Amino acid sequence: MKLYYLTLSFWLFISCVYGQETVVKSSQLDFVIKEKFHVLKSDKVIKHGEYLAKNNKTLIAQGNYDHGKRVGYWSFSNVTGKLIQSYNYNSNKLMYTDTSDSKDLKYSFEQLPKENDTINYPVKIGGFHYGLAPLVNEQDKLIKKLFQELLDGKTLEFLHIFSVDTGGKLFKHEVFITGNNINKSYILTDNNFDDEFKKFVPAKINHNPVECKVYVRATVNMVTETATRALN
Length: 232
What we know:
- By secondary structure, this protein is α+β, with helices and mostly antiparallel strands.
- It has 2 domains: 1-97, no CATH class; 101-232, no CATH class.
- Helix content is 16%, strand content 49%.
- The chain has 3 helices and 18 strands.
- The chain has helices at 2-18, 127-136, 140-148; strands spanning 22-28, 33-40, 43-55, 58-66, 69-77, 83-88, 93-97, 106-109, 119-120, 123-124, 155-164, 170-179, 182-188, 200-201, 203-205, 208-210, 212-221, 228-231.
- The strands form 4 sheets. The protein has a 7-stranded antiparallel sheet, with helices on one face. Strands 8, 11, 12, 13, 17 and 18 form a 6-stranded antiparallel sheet that branches.
- The chain is globular and about 55 Å long.
C-alpha cells in the first residue's frame, strides 16, 4: 500500500509539472555542444520539461525544467560518457562528484587559508565539459576580433579567471591574453548563459563559504578563422 502511494504521488508530481503543452527546440550551447529541450507552447522562451545536451553524440547533461527553473536530479558526464556529477536542484545539493576532469584547475581565495584549515574547493555545477568549457569557448568572439588585428598564424595563451561569490554565483569572467608581444585583457559578459548555468558550489574554508577565483588556461593557434583550441 505504501509503494502504491509513493508511485501515485510521483505520477501526480510529473503530471503537475509537465501537464502543460510544450514544443521541442534545439540550439547550440557552444561550437560542439547541442541542446535539445522542451519549451512552453504559450511562451517559447521558457524551458519546461526534459532537457538533454550532447557533445557530438555523447550525452553530457540530462535533467528537467519547471517553468524555466531546473528541478530534481540532473546528471552530468564527460565527453567519454562517464558520469562525473549528480546534482539535486530541489535541495540545492551536490549528490556526487568526480573532479578528475578538473584536476588541472587552479584556485585562489579572498581569505587566505592557514596551514591547518579545512578547504573545500569550488565545484562548477555541470562539471568541466558541460559547465566550464562553454564559458571558456565564449572566447570565440575575442578570437574573431584578434583576427581582425592581423594575428593570423600566432599562438596565444588565454587565461580565464572566474570570480565566484560566497553563494556560488559567477560575478566576473576575465580573460588575459598573452604571447607574440600581445598582452590584452577583456571582461566577458556571458550573456548567452542563464544564472543557473553559471552556478558553482561555493568554496569553503573551515566549512564557511568564501569568495574565490577559478583559473582555466587555453592555448589558441590562430592558424585559420576556425582556430585550433587546446584546454590545459
